[in-house]
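Question (not urgent): is this output format expected?
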Amino acid sequence: MDSRVLVFRIARLFLVLLIILIGTMSVFSRRGILDLKRMWDRNAQLETKISDLKSVNFSLKRRIDAFQTNSHEQERMVREVLGFLRPGEVLVDLE
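Got this back:
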């Protein structure tokens, strides 16, 4: 076998092994493709959670505004949460 052919085959084998090593590292390493996929999935979960919390926050702000500006809402909350009654009312517990 010619020495040039042997050198060429060794170089080609080295390049193939190097490509396999780089490919394996890019998929399975700490900052590889699989880790990137996990980060994207986690980001999507957090975005959903943020959206849900924004919705809850908006609802709570509406309730606070209603409580601060509406005397009927204030009375409803005091009766519901604290169990207050108007003079002359009697509480009937149906449980």
